[in-house]
């Protein structure tokens, strides 16, 4: 698997790196980490990155303004994106002009898009997969690349909390930190928030619902987001693990009202929440998944589904 990816990187000169819409740090870290990796090891190659960059994650770097002609004769690397419809690209048809499309991902490979698939669901983060690729192939790992990959590794494992974390995960974290990138700065970038968002976290911890079955959830409306001056609902949805630290909780969910739909984030200790997500326009890992519905009535149906799973 890694030998095939290395050969692709060596044999081609024109790359575009994409990732999923509504990106998290694993998507951005793997995308931009792969770019800096290519720049460090193959400085003569052309590397572009694309997609919308949320303001609160702008610290990771910058995106290029891609045009249709950029895809002519390019190898397109798509990181951390389970399904083709979630690729953050202005026009999916642009991919047809690419010389090669390579999927690099750690989700279950249910949508087998692309010409080459570097996919392994045993990795809790795509950034871990890419780090393993680097160490296995002895490519140069710079502090800048390590910084980006660590952002994805630490967030997608929820600071090494999930059951999918293994000895390999800690070994990869060791390889990254060995480069001496600024670890404290990385944590500040990820976790430091302004006072109004801190108050929103306080609201969540004060107003969540906890059922006798061990289900915890919170509903965040547009009005509530406005009250706390939270400009990006997708950022708030990724706070779902606030509820995971509560004793006795087995499944926890966050419902956040976005512009056109209600985003749902599912997490659990052991239960297969991706089975619920798949019924509501979503999917993901067994213990970490996402979905969306279009009204609060359907939110109540999701809550009932989760309650049933716990019984």
From TrEMBL:
Highest taxon listed in the record's lineage: Bacteria
InterPro entries per record: DDH_dom, DHH_sf, DHHA1_dom, Oligoribo/pAp-PDE_c-di-AMP_PDE
Domain DHHA1 residue range list: 231-310
SUPFAM superfamilies, A to Z: DHH phosphoesterases (SSF64182)
Gene3D superfamilies given in the database record: 3.10.310.30, inorganic pyrophosphatase (n-terminal core)
Domain DDH: from-to ranges: 15-152
Pfam family, one: DHHA1
Name recorded for this polypeptide: Phosphoesterase RecJ domain-containing protein
Provenance organism: Spiroplasma chrysopicola DF-1
């Amino acid at each position: 698997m890694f030998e095939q990816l290395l050969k692709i990187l060596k044999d081609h000169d024109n790359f575009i790196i994409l990732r999923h819409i509504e990106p998290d740090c694993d998507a951005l870290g793997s995308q931009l980490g792969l770019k800096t990796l290519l720049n460090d090891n193959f400085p003569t190659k052309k590397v572009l990155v694309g997609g919308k960059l949320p303001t609160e994650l702008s610290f990771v770097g910058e995106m290029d303004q891609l045009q249709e002609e950029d895809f002519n004769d390019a190898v397109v690397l798509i990181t951390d994106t389970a399904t083709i419809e979630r690729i953050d690209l202005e026009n999916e048809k642009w991919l047809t002009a690419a010389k090669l499309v390579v999927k690099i991902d750690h989700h279950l490979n249910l949508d087998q898009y692309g010409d080459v698939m570097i996919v392994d669901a045993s990795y809790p983060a795509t950034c871990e997969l890419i780090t393993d690729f680097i160490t296995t192939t002895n490519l140069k790992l710079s502090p800048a690349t390590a910084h980006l990959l660590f952002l994805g590794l630490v967030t997608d494992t929820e600071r090494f909390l999930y059951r999918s974390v293994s000895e390999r995960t800690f070994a990869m974290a060791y390889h990254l930190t060995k480069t001496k990138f600024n670890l404290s700065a990385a944590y500040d970038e990820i976790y430091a928030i302004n006072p109004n968002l801190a108050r929103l976290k306080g609201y969540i911890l004060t107003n969540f619902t906890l059922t006798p079955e061990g289900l915890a959830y919170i509903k965040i409306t547009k009005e509530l987001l406005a009250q706390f001056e939270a400009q990006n609902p997708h950022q708030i949805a990724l706070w779902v693990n606030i509820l995971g630290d509560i004793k006795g909780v087995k499944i926890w969910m966050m419902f956040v009202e976005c512009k056109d739909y209600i985003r749902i984030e599912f997490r659990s200790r052991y239960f297969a929440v991706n089975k619920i997500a798949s019924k509501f326009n979503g999917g993901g890992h067994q213990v970490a998944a996402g979905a969306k519905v279009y009204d609060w009535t359907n939110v109540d149906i999701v809550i009932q589904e989760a309650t049933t799973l716990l019984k």
